[in-house]
Amino acid sequence: MHACARAGEPLPSPPPFTTADLPARFTTEAELDDFLTRPRSALVESIRCLTSPLVVLGAGGKMGPTLAVLAHRAAEAAAHPLEVIAVSRFGGGPTRAWLEARGVKTLSCDLLAPNAAQHLPDTSNLVYLVGLKFGTARNPAATWAVNTLAPLQVAQRYPRARIVVLSTGNVYPLGPASAGGATEEAPLTPLGEYANAAVARERLFQFCAERNSSTIALLRLFYAVDLRYGILVDLAKRVARGEPIDLTSGYFNCIWQGDANEMVLRALALASNPPSVWNLCRPEVFPVRTIAEQLGVLLGRAPVFQGLEAATALLGNSARLCAALGPPATPLEATLHWTAHWVARGGRDWGKPTHFEVRDGRY
Ligand SMILES: NC(=O)c1ccc[n+]([C@@H]2O[C@H](COP(=O)([O-])OP(=O)(O)OC[C@H]3O[C@@H](n4cnc5c(N)ncnc54)[C@H](OP(=O)(O)O)[C@@H]3O)[C@@H](O)[C@H]2O)c1
Question: Model-level pTM?
Fold first, then answer.
């Protein structure tokens, strides 16, 4: 098979990690970041197909830094001259220097400023991570602005680019937990202003693609998990502290952040016009109760539960993306071990809880 598949051609499906491939645990953030940014061969192959530069918008958040460095390391491993440019507001923290030290160029840009996107570099390949979720209940106007005005600026600035847009599983309403999760054809009728602004983000990219020749892949992500944030850390901390875990939102999907970042980058090959749509998560539906019990065994403390599982949950079916790119490489079991060890020794937490238990759409 040619390394750069044409639209519709099958892509390589790399094998998942075996236990022997995986670290037993992480004790420092440097080890964790090194693992999260270590490219596997399928990504190294696919990165050869990108013309320089690769621009990552919204790169200053939870996913962008490791995604940008992963892309840079994949290009290095492929001996492919690809400049990776990370764009965000970069409001004063260490992220910008962290990226620059690892070979990623950075640009500060507020995509809500008039004509801001006009000052961004030309490119044929974009990853779009910009979004705002938390704080919506307090300031819904800001959420609507970030999730609509910025997409419009970017879609109009890059009318011929190939773009992977990160969307969210929140675009679906709660569905029956027994049904295996929403497929990409499910109606986008969620509850709450954040989720509806996220629908608007998708619709604006689709609307602009109807009028230009951009190719787009929309990825609806359900809970990336790192050791510094994510639903597994949220559960593990509650178990470790003996805090009650509400079971009403009783089921979830998730994916190791390294796998999510790899699939986001490989999904550039899945961009099309009209835009293609994909759910991004591991293929399994995980019960909160079972996962908390497994974390409890690893942490040596039985979880405390309250409430009972409701019949509905926010769930997605990722069969389409798993068929196109191969399943995510990192098994949940490894992630549970890493998380329990990290939480038990007081590893750093970014203080960004997922609020996975929210059912009324208020974030
Ligand atoms: N992480 C997950 O589990 C998850 C789950 C579902 C969906 N997603 C989607 O995936 C995307 C990336 O996830 P993430 O966790 O990295 O999100 P995040 O931590 O919220 O990062 C998004 C970044 O967008 C940037 N941004 C916001 N407003 C901006 C503006 N006006 N101009 C330029 N940049 C702006 C911010 O960086 P600066 O402050 O530096 O500007 C922010 O850190 C999100 O948009 C979200 O919709 C993520």
Answer: 0.97
